[in-house]
Amino acid sequence: MGTWALTQAQAIARQDVDLLVVSFTSWVPKVLARTGGAKAYAHCPSEFIWQGSVRVHYPRWLYYPVPPVKSRMYTHPEPYLRMAWWSAQQSFLRLMEFQPDVIFCHHALPNGWMLTQFPSTHQKPLITLDHDFDEIADCHRLPFRKAAMQQVADRAWAMLAVSNRMRHDLNQLFPSTHIQTLHNGVDPLPDHLFHQKRPLDLEGKKVILCCALFAERKGIPILVRAFHQVSSQHSDAVLRIVGSGPDEAAIRATIAELNLGDRVQMMGRKPHAEVLQEMVWADCFTLVGWDEPFATVYLEAMAAGKPVICCSDGGITDVLQDGVHGYTVPPKSVDATATAIARMLSNEAERIQMGHNAQRLIQQHLTWDAKAKELIQLMETAVGSHRQLNLSTTRQ
To answer: Is 3.90.1640.30 the CATH number for 3-185+369-395?
Structure first.
């Protein structure tokens, strides 16, 4: 359902494995689909072959993580998970005719929980990967959520996290489970993007790019206020913001309040390929959202050869070093963000070098192909352990 998940699947497929990809989708009759989200569910095909010959199945289930049931589903998940399993078990069992050696799934809830419901004859080594800080951390205060996660922890061969901070939380919650970090990756950007000239209106400008869902946690008004602090000293700088979302009115209000209409450019939503082009055209990428697990948007900017300004609490700081690949700032700090922007704009040679360092880090360690190889090595270990256990059981 997400660009990063698809590119990961394509990378796994390139590793010479037999791959079955499944993305369960909420069942919505077309005649009742009125909102954009409902229409996306209703018109999703039952299967689709993506670039790279990755065939994805989209079976339906009765699982609806949308208001008003979403909050209750989050705190007391099991009744909704059981409804989802009831509606999806036949599809699950048909898919198991594929006879996998190992099962890998994103998100312990709901997907990992579903796989714990398989009869013993269908159980294979299970590896889960989680992506959201709050979905894990909230288990400390939500006993019913933790109980559902515990079922997955008891069944999984390994639970993976996209950042070390999340891994630490999982270790505290489920100390008996094999837990480790698996960072996200990114595909190298197409060469032609680096040969496209900047638009004329960007010639001679220092471009700061931000791309995000417009939500409070992304901190975009903080970024706008920080840019305002340094804008008078850097008259050639512009801030370009790509995206949309519920916090858009607050962002526009901040821009109007600070009279930055000619310096802050709201670009709206853009197709992924156009976002990557914007990254190549930019001089640096800045997103000062807090609690960012391991956002692939940072990796994309780094793959474009751009230094990054990000918050110090984010998962990307597992790999991004302050002063080497960009700058890290405390969450929600306008002044610290302004200082980082000023440093970025004031020293062209350092800015370019940090961009080179960032791109080199991606090329050497954080491509999807490299991360897929790590994952497959882990899968091979899981399969070997499972076979050894079955052999020992048979001998007994």
So the answer is: no
DSSP per-residue letters across 66-108: -TTTHHHHHHS-HHHHHHHHHHHHHHHHHHGGG--S-EEEE-I
Q: Give the model confidence (pLDDT) of 326-345 as tens digits.
A: 999 999 999 999 999 999 99
> What would the pLDDT profile of 237-258 be if each residue is shown by its tens digit?
999 999 999 999 999 999 999 9
Q: In what order do the strands lie in the sheet with 284-286?
A: 264-268, 237-242, 206-211, 284-286, 308-311, 326-329
Q: Which one-letter amino acid corresponds to residue 349? A: A
State residue 118's pLDDT score. 87
Burial 364-391 (b: 16+ CB within 10 A, else e): eebbbebbbeebbebbeebbeebeeeee
CB distance 326 to 308 below 8 Å: yes
Measure the CA–CA gap between 75 and 73, rounded to whole angstroms.
6
- Look at residue 37 in the predicted model and tell me its pLDDT: 83
Q: Is the pTM of this model over 0.85?
A: yes
Q: Spell out the residues 6+ positions from residue 81 whose beta carbon is closer than 8 angstroms to its own.
A: 63, 109, 110, 113, 114, 148
User: Where in the chain do CATH 3.40.50.2000 domains reside?
Assistant: 3-185+369-395, 191-366
What does the DSSP 8-state code read for residue 321? P
Q: What is the pLDDT of residues 271-281, one digit of tens each?
A: 999 999 999 99
The arrangement of secondary structure in 191-366, i.e. its CATH architecture, is 3-Layer(aba) Sandwich (3.40)
| Dihedral of the alpha carbons of 165, 171, 177, 183, in degrees to the nearest 10 | 10
Packing angle between helix 143-155 and helix 164-173, nearest 10 degrees?
A: 100
What confidence tier does 391 reach under pLDDT thresholds 50, 70, 90? low
Q: How far apart are CA 285 and CA 340, in angstroms?
A: 12
